[in-house]
Amino acid sequence: MEIPDDLIADLIPAVQAQISAKQPPCVAATFARLTQEGLTESDACELIAQALAVVANDMMLCGKPFDLKAYQKLLQALPQLPDESTGTPR
């Protein structure tokens, strides 16, 4: 299942809040790493939002609790995009 672009756009404020609060710390670290690698702040936030969307999708469709470890794994793989159907990096 493909995650709609509007869901990803809706998650960007949540990502920005996570970066500002440094909670979870892996989000701020990933943002710093991606921008140091040359991505714009906007592109870095969008990539992080895509990873968050995969985890949120699992929560909604499967009734699972938020999986921080899965989120961290997806963040570590960025800028490689997650496979939206499996939650694993492509």
Describe the protein's architecture and organization.
By secondary structure, this protein is mainly α. It contains four helices and no strands. The longest helix has 22 residues, at 41-62. It is globular and about 35 Å long. The two termini are 15 Å apart. 27% of the residues are buried. The model has no long low-confidence stretch (mean pLDDT 90).
Could you name the key traits of this structure?
single chain, 90 residues, mainly alpha, 4 helices, 68% helix, 0% strand, globular
Q: What is the strand tally?
A: 0
Number of helices: 4
Beta fraction: under 5%
Radius of gyration: 12 Å
Q: Give the helices and strands as they follow along the chain.
A: HHHH
The number of distinct structural domains comes to 1
- Decide which structural class fits the backbone: mainly alpha
Shape: globular
Our measurement of the CA-to-CA distance between the termini, rounded to an integer number of angstroms, reads 15 Å
The percentage helix is 55-70%
Main β-sheet description: none
Low-confidence stretches: none
